[in-house]
Design brief:
Number of strands: 6
Order of helices and strands: HEEEHEEE
Structural class: mainly beta
Shape: globular
Strand content: 25-35%
Length: 106
């Protein structure tokens, strides 16, 4: 049976390439976006540096201690002093290079 996160459109997992912790979720109700967000909370300075037209900042909201996290828009109507952690879209740097096998160097 699928877990609650899967039924609600969220998947707390790791990026298959770089293994960073991510949350993949549909955000919105009418014209929903599929968002893959990094789970590392950002400071306000990090948010300002990371935000671009193609890289958004998301509010990681929890309705209660036993509910899964939900991503919410951080648009103009989002409170400036929001108490929840903010995260950004995941931009994968690719797989981390593995150590070369010493036997294949010869």
């Amino acid at each position: 049976m699928a877990g609650r996160a899967a039924r609600r459109g969220g998947d707390d997992s790791r990026c298959p390439a770089c293994r960073a912790p991510i949350l993949r979720q549909l955000v919105g109700t009418v014209a929903a976006l599929t968002v893959t967000a990094e789970l590392r909370p950002l400071t306000p300075d990090e948010q300002a540096a990371a935000r671009t037209p193609n890289r958004l900042i998301w509010c990681l909201y929890r309705a209660g201690p036993h509910t899964p996290p939900r991503l919410r828009w951080t648009g103009p109507s989002h409170p400036a002093q929001c108490p929840h952690p903010h995260v950004t879209d995941h931009h994968c740097p690719g797989p981390t290079p593995a150590e070369p096998d010493p036997l294949t160097l010869f």
